[in-house]
Design a protein that fits this description.
about 150 residues; mainly alpha; Arc Repressor Mutant, subunit A; 6 helices; about 60% helix; disordered N terminus
Length: about 150
């Protein structure tokens, strides 16, 4: 396989690096992902919330009260893990359990008012961090990045 006019191997046979030794697309992607993960953890620290807890709060906000089995399915985690997440959130007053009126044996988990307030504060803080990170890009580059990431998520 040959190289294109910029010295890159279009088939990726050079391990994703061009002949000048520049970082590959994947290397750059993972470096940015690490930055975002670290920033996210710092942003969540004041609330003592983990990314898994945040995902659960977001699911409950989006779907309303859920049985633990449905919460675990939405989060794509084991039912036991969903119970642990719900326990941790309940101990902080962010969610509460209540009987399911359609099945006395089942329990629903739902956000409390405090949980909604905390989620709103986290969203605001994360929005500021996202603006800081992506604000370095022009609006056109932000739109391109959003479009490209949307394609990769499919």
């Amino acid at each position: 396989m040959g190289q294109d006019r910029d010295g890159r191997d279009p088939a990726g046979a050079t391990g994703g690096r061009d002949t000048a030794g520049e970082e590959s697309l994947a290397d750059n992607f993972w470096a940015v992902a690490r930055q975002l993960r670290e920033t996210s953890q710092e942003t969540l620290a004041p609330w003592d919330i983990t990314p898994a807890h945040l995902r659960a709060l977001r699911v409950l906000s989006r779907h309303g009260p859920l049985r633990l089995s449905r919460l675990s399915a939405q989060l794509r985690i084991a039912p036991r893990s969903a119970t642990e997440v719900a326990d941790a959130l309940e101990s902080r007053g962010l969610v509460e359990r209540q009987p399911d009126s359609s099945d006395r044996r089942a329990t629903l988990v739902q956000l409390t008012d405090h949980g909604r307030d905390v989620l709103a504060a986290i969203r605001a803080a994360r929005g500021i961090e996202a603006d800081r990170m992506f604000g370095r890009l022009s609006p056109a580059d932000q739109a391109d990045l959003a479009r490209i990431l949307g394609q990769l998520r499919k």
